[in-house]
Every structure is written in C-alpha cells, then in structure tokens.
Design brief:
The chain has helices spanning 10-18, 80-86, 126-134, 170-179, 207-215, 233-242, 264-278, 293-302, 319-336, 368-375, 378-381, 390-397, 404-420, 433-445, 470-477, 525-538, and strands at 2-3, 24-28, 35-38, 48-52, 56-61, 64-69, 87-88, 91-100, 106-111, 116-117, 123-124, 139-147, 154-161, 188-191, 220-224, 341-345, 357-361, 384-389, 424-427, 449-452, 481-488, 509-514. By secondary structure, the chain is α/β, with parallel strands linked by helices. The protein folds into 4 domains: 2-109, Roll (Luciferase, domain 3); 115-224, GMP Synthetase, Chain A, domain 3 (2-Layer Sandwich), CATH 3.30.300; 242-302, Non-ribosomal Peptide Synthetase Peptidyl Carrier Protein, Chain A; 315-538, Glycerol-3-phosphate (1)-acyltransferase.
C-alpha cells in the first residue's frame, strides 16, 4: 500500500501492518519535487514518515523541517518576497513540524501555522486532539482551534456530527477530555452549520475559513467544556495544606515545579492527595513539572469519580497453582522455539539473587513476557508476577455487553491463560495509584519478584520510550532492587496480537540481556526511572 498527500493515521497504519500489508509512506511538497523522505516498511514503525532520501539534507529548527537539495525549487516564480520568506540561508522552510525518533526516522507532528501555543510556552498540536475526537463514531469530522491569546487562550473544537445524533455535544467533549492530557483539554465547542467544511482541491480543511466562521458566529449550538480557570478556594487549600506555600504564590499560571517548588516526590503525593480529597480518578502522568494550578482545577473538574477497584488475586500465588503453572510453562516453552531462536546474556548477574527483585524490561512485543520468563532460572521464574494494564488487556476480555455465556467463557479463558499460567498482576495507568502501590507492597512482602515494563506500552517504532516514574516509586519507597532487562529481535513478532508473517524474518534470533542488580536510596522518582532506562539501553 502506497500512502501520500497527508499524514497517515498511526492507528490505521498499525492495523494494515498487522494484517500483513506492506506500507510505503512518502513525505514531500510541491516545492521539493516532491519526495523528501520515504518510509521503508522493513525499518520503520507505524506513524513514521521515514528517512531522508539521498541527495537531500534536512534539519529541525524549533521542530520545523528545513530541507535543501537539488530537488528543491530555487524560489517562487516572479515572487521575490514569498521566496525570501520561505528560505533561510539556502534552506527551504516547509512549515511542517516533526521530531526524529531514536531509530533515526522522522515523525510528523503537524503544521506550524496550526500549532496552539499556551501562555507557559507548551505547544498543543490540534491534530492530536482531533484524532481523539474523530475516534468517536458520532463525529464525522472536526477542527480544533486556539481562540484568544495568552492567559485568555481557549481550545475550541468545531464539530461536524452524524445526523442521527441529537444530544448535547458536551458529552462528546467530556469523553474526549478524559483521554487527553490536561493541557490539551477542550474548553468549548460549536457545531458546524453546513454539509462539510470548506476544503482545498486536495480535500484539506481550510482552517482559516473555519476560524473566521467561529469568530463571526456562523457556527451554532455553542457548548462549553471545562471553563477557563477561576481561582478556587478548595484547590488553594489542597496545595497549601499539602505543601506549605503562601496563598499569594498560588496563581493560575503558577507551575508546580518552577514557581511553587514541588519536586517529583511531591507531584506523586499531590496526585494521591487530590484523589483522596475529591474521590476521583487521577492519572498521575497528567501532573508533571510544567502543570499549572489552572491545569489542576481543570483536571479535577473533568476527572471521573473513583469507582473501579484494582483487584488483588491471591489464588495464583498459592502452591497448587504454582505447581500447575510450572508444568504448563515446561509444556509451552518448547513450542516457542519454533517461532524464534533465543540467546540469553548476563545470566551471571542472576546468581546469588536474594529476596524479591524487580525485572525492568523494554516492551517490544506481546511475547516479551514468555521470552523473559523462559530466560530465567526455574528458582526465580516460579516466583515472578508480571504487571499488566487493566485498560489494555483485562477490560478487553471482560465485556459489558453480549450473551452472558460468551462473556463467562472469554473471561474464564483469559483468567486461566494469563492470570494463572503467566501470573499477571493487574494495574491501572489512569487511577487508583495508592491502591496499586499497596497491592505491589503486599506482593513484594510475600517474597514475589515482578516483571514490569516501565515504558507503559508496546513500542510502535522499535525504539525505547521514556520510562515512567512508577518504577522509581517501587524502587525507592519499597526499597526493591532492580535488574535491568533488554529484549532485542522481537519487534516484528506479535506486536498487536497477530503474527505478521510477511514482515517477520525467518526464525529470528531474540536476545535477552540481564544487567547488574541496582539499588536506590534517592527519592527523585523520575531520576531513578531515567537511570534504569539508561541501564536498559546500555545492554
């Protein structure tokens, strides 16, 4: 499949790859005649626009792609002013924003002229918000705009809804905000009054015309999302009581770290304090150094009430089940050698391990857990639990609709396969931080080691993503020793639950490397996570 003309949605890209289609995606402009980069499906992950072609050079200036080469036009015909604006010392300014991944491939972020810049300097890419809105089946299309400037900035969504929908668009906005980072939250929305948005000859939406229509009131049924920040006495009390800060320092635009002096430990504890006071589900990843007091207010108003409990299953830790699990693993693992060859490095670092440890690994495939467990000696393997996201795996199998018998069979099958035979330990990435830590503490106190993937998900490009601070909390507060683990060679196997035979090398060599045991006394969780990440990368 050949893709061009507009950025290819990452989820759609991943879907076609999983059903064994080869995706060739090119990037370029009319002024570059036309290709600048081309994605080689054998060397790029989903969402990448590839590497620069021979004979051209690119560089990123404030994330904007600059390009030069023999294929680049020298300028615009009889328009010296436009030519001067479009070039900088021989480099053509594309107006497109991107970032370069660890694999050296380019990843498209959006157009420079569509980026919304907040008062605190954070860039908001409308395309990221629009993709979340479009995932709702009631939204045919949408445009996200920044209205106002500085402290008065609002994120405004213009929606084109399905004809069958007659409800309030506020519900659509609330649902989208639950999936977005707090600094991306939509503040208001309106309904497009027309059959379609104005478009160019290549079917791209004319954003300027949509913005003019919104400003002139030519959209209808305006609805509000989270209101712009108004200083709340409650949030003042939470921050002031949590950390001795003078009330006058707590301003709308005050950042938690730079202006209020909260460190990484404070940020994690603040998330727990907000959960406890307001009885809501708070994703601690949405509270970071650059979060403002205004962002906290918006987060509190848009968060869901705490409802779902994080289960702690004791059955998989009992002796009869442990015996069944060991037998099952001995039966299963020989069949795994048909899919790949296994090479284990650093086994000497596993000798003389005492007490529970945390195996922190990069996440390349849904086969990672089997491969790591098979690489461990039996004395360690039989007392290891694997942390797994409730949102990504557990809830996928526990349906809320359909025949009761189907739900019962699928739930039981999943429980037997994953919870009993692999000993999965559930966690949530969106809520219940305090309860998760208590459950992990119970497991470690019983002498069980655990396998954790600090990236928070399977890689989409083959590289290693930034480790989340949760592993730092476990290593520091629970004084758990950490063994870094690096997995190589599994990226193209079972990334999305399907074996992509056309993309998979024949009988690939998979390497699992174990690093030296690490212990931490530092209380900077992000720093600890960074050290562990560096150790994994070095293997």
């Amino acid at each position: 499949m050949i893709v061009g003309g507009a950025a290819f949605d990452r989820n759609i890209d991943e879907f076609w790859r999983c059903i064994a289609y080869t995706i060739f995606q090119g990037y370029g402009l009319t002024e570059t005649a036309p290709l600048i980069t081309l994605a080689d499906p054998a060397q790029t992950g989903a969402g990448s626009i590839g590497k620069v072609l021979d004979g051209q050079k690119i560089r990123l200036v404030d994330s904007e792609i600059y390009v030069r080469g023999n294929n680049v036009s020298p300028g615009y015909y009889e328009n010296p002013q436009l030519t001067e604006e479009a070039f900088s010392k021989g480099w053509f300014k594309t107006g497109d924003l991107a970032e370069i991944g660890e694999d050296g491939n380019l990843y498209f972020k959006g157009r420079k002229d569509t980026v919304v810049v907040r008062a605190d300097g954070i860039n908001i890419y409308p395309e990221d918000i629009e993709s979340v809105l479009k995932a709702n089946s009631l939204v045919k299309d949408c445009v996200v705009l920044g209205l106002g400037y500085g402290s008065n900035l609002e994120i405004h969504a213009v929606l084109m809804l399905e004809d069958k929908y007659s409800g309030s668009p506020e519900n659509i906005i609330k649902e989208a905000n639950r999936k977005l980072n707090v600094y991306q939250h939509i503040n208001s929305c309106s309904i497009w009054d027309g059959d379609d948005f104005p478009r160019t000859s290549t079917e791209k939406i004319k954003r300027n015309e949509v913005a003019k229509a919104v400003s002139s009131g030519r959209t209808k049924k305006k609805a509000r999302g989270p209101k712009p920040y108004r200083k709340s006495q409650e949030i003042l009390e939470v921050i002031k009581n949590f950390h001795k800060i003078k009330s006058k320092s707590i301003r709308k635009e005050a950042r938690l770290e730079k202006d209020l002096g909260l460190d990484s430990l404070d940020l994690v504890q603040l998330a727990g304090a907000i959960e406890e006071k307001y009885d809501i589900e708070v994703d601690d990843s949405q509270i970071f150094a650059g979060t403002t007091v205004g962002d906290l207010e918006t987060l509190i108003k848009s968060s869901r009430k705490a409802s779902q409990k994080i289960p702690f299953y004791s059955l998989p830790f009992r002796a009869p089940v442990r015996f069944i699990r060991v037998i099952f693993q001995y039966i299963l693992y020989p069949f795994m050698s048909v899919i790949y060859r296994l090479k284990v490095e650093g086994r000497e670092n596993l000798k003389n391990l005492k007490g529970p440890v945390v195996f922190a690994a990069n996440h390349t495939s849904h086969l990672d857990t089997f491969v790591v467990l098979y690489s461990l000696p039996l004395k360690l393997r039989k007392r290891v639990a694997t942390l797994m996201s409730i949102e990504h795996h557990f809830n996928h199998f526990f349906y809320q609709s359909g025949p009761w018998w189907r739900r019962a069979v699928e739930a039981m099958g999943f429980y037997l396969l994953v919870n009993l035979f692999i000993n999965v330990f559930p966690l949530s990435r969106t809520h219940g931080f305090k309860q998760i830590m208590e459950n992990i503490g119970r497991m470690l106190s019983r002498g069980w080691s655990m396998l954790i993937y600090p990236e928070g998900g399977v890689t989409t490009d083959g590289g290693i993503k930034e480790f989340e601070p949760g592993v730092g909390v476990i290593a520091s507060d629970m004084e758990a020793s950490v063994v870094p683990v690096r997995i190589k060679g599994l990226f193209n196997i079972l990334r999305n639950g399907i074996l992509p035979w056309k993309h998979m090398p024949r009988w690939p060599l998979v390497t699992v490397s174990f690093g030296k045991l690490e212990r931490f006394k530092d209380k900077d969780y992000r720093k600890i996570a960074g050290i562990i990440e560096k150790a994994v990368r070095s293997l």
